[in-house]
Specification:
Length: 333
């Protein structure tokens, strides 16, 4: 057994634990939470609850598939020994839940790059940015502790690995092995793929098309940069713009009370430029919008409450500085 991992988890023995994850929790966040709950109960005799602000539509489908219901807790302040944040590198990503947690009780288990101010809100953290998914980290923890996971946990972990590795385009040396071990327990791999790719509803289709209609295009050397604004589905729209041909896409949802900005870039853009959307863009933009940002090298976002237009201008400035080139607007003709 990995001694350092055992020492990390020994602090949870017989404790009251809350597990949580970022707003609109995706399959990776969901799978990590459900499986870790099982591990902590079996191995460390913990009382464990999962709380969350919201889960994505895909996560809802996965929960329905494994017939699992998660109960939201509304009053939990000071009623726990630790709160473990999964697939979340900053409490600000929790939504309203993050306003009520006791900071000296926060533990992070994540695969995102650590936030620059991580020691201010988490004394203990297990962060492995070389992993494509937090679900893979949790799977390996379960293996290390010889925990037999249920069908539901295994199903959700495999879904989380597939989803966040972008169908195995982002991997490390253990990703395929973890997926193989999970799949060979009798999981329906085809069913997981189907659930991870549901037909988009009309509102999401329209949002993606509106993002194209509203976008401004810029070029900087060989790179094409797309910026757009939407009232919803900004993450989906930014993915769509990259799929259409943009090297990097930024989509903002700006209202009187909230600002959400989603960014995506191609692997080629990241490899050639070294521009990390989390560290170089969304983390610096967070304070401008009175919020915080984070994510991955090619997929990141930030949430705040103000100054959305200023943030978009700053993003263009950062990109120009990092690329060493002026951004030239491309005519729509």
């Amino acid at each position: 057994m990995n001694t350092s991992l055992q020492d990390f988890f020994n602090r949870f023995q017989n404790k009251k634990i809350i597990l949580s994850f970022h707003k609109n929790g995706d399959p990776d966040a969901l799978g990590s939470a459900v499986a870790l709950r099982e591990i902590l109960k079996q191995k460390y005799n913990c009382q464990v609850n999962i709380i969350f602000d919201s889960v994505s539509k895909i996560s809802t489908l996965l929960l329905e598939e494994v017939k699992l219901k998660l109960s939201e807790l509304t009053d939990f302040k000071d009623k726990y020994d630790y709160i473990i944040l999964l697939d979340t590198n900053n409490p600000a990503q929790l939504g309203e839940i993050g306003l009520n947690i006791v900071k000296d009780k926060i533990v992070l288990i994540d695969h995102h790059l650590p936030h620059s101010e991580i020691t201010e809100f988490s004394a203990f953290h297990l962060i492995k940015p070389e992993y494509p998914a937090t679900s893979q980290i949790i799977f390996e923890i379960g293996e290390c502790f010889n925990v037999n996971l249920s069908y539901a946990s295994s199903f959700l972990l495999l879904a989380g690995i597939i989803y966040d590795s972008r169908y195995f385009t982002l991997i490390n040396s253990g990703t395929f092995l973890a997926a193989y071990k999970l799949a060979k327990t009798g999981l329906d791999y085809g069913r997981i793929l189907y659930l991870l790719n549901p037909l988009k509803d009309r509102s999401e289709k329209l949002a993606r098309l509106k993002a194209v209609k509203r976008m401004d295009l810029y070029e900087a050397g060989e790179w094409i940069i797309a910026l757009s604004k939407l009232g919803s589905f900004e993450a989906s729209a930014s993915r769509a713009l990259v799929q259409l041909g943009a090297d990097i896409a930024i989509v903002a949802n700006i209202s009187k009370a909230n600002v959400r900005i989603s960014g995506r870039s191609s692997q080629e853009f990241f490899k050639k430029t070294g521009i990390n959307l989390a560290k170089d863009l969304m983390e610096p933009i967070g304070p401008i919008i009175n919020g915080q940002g984070g994510g991955h090298s090619t997929a990141a976002g930030c949430n705040g409450t103000a100054n959305g237009e200023e943030a978009l201008e700053k993003i263009k400035e950062i990109l120009a500085e990092k690329l060493g080139l002026k951004l030239k607007k491309i005519s729509s003709d």
